[in-house]
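Give me the fold.
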Amino acid sequence: MKYLNYQQLIPLRDALDRLLMFVKALPCQETPYFYHYLDTMKHNIELYVKLENGNMDLLEVLLQKDWNHANNNLFGIPSFDYFQKNEDTVELFWEYLELLDEVKKYFR
């Protein structure tokens, strides 16, 4: 994870929110496993912003931990197969990748 500064928290939170809303709107039978980790990340950012002077190092550790869990190869983002099962969703798949990339850029 690259170093985050306070000014990046709101855009990251907003990117997480857009991705969460997109995934929630998909007609999946179950909420994907990774959704909960992304939601936790968003809420941790919101708490940090409301506290205004929390420990940024601790927040970065928490965000990275949740991002790693959300990207677990067995049951996280890499294993999300909704688009493979629904071949008529190519445009949605590209939108999903763009939203995912918006969040991913903070963790490169």
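Helices lie at 6-25, 33-51, 56-70, 82-85, 90-104.
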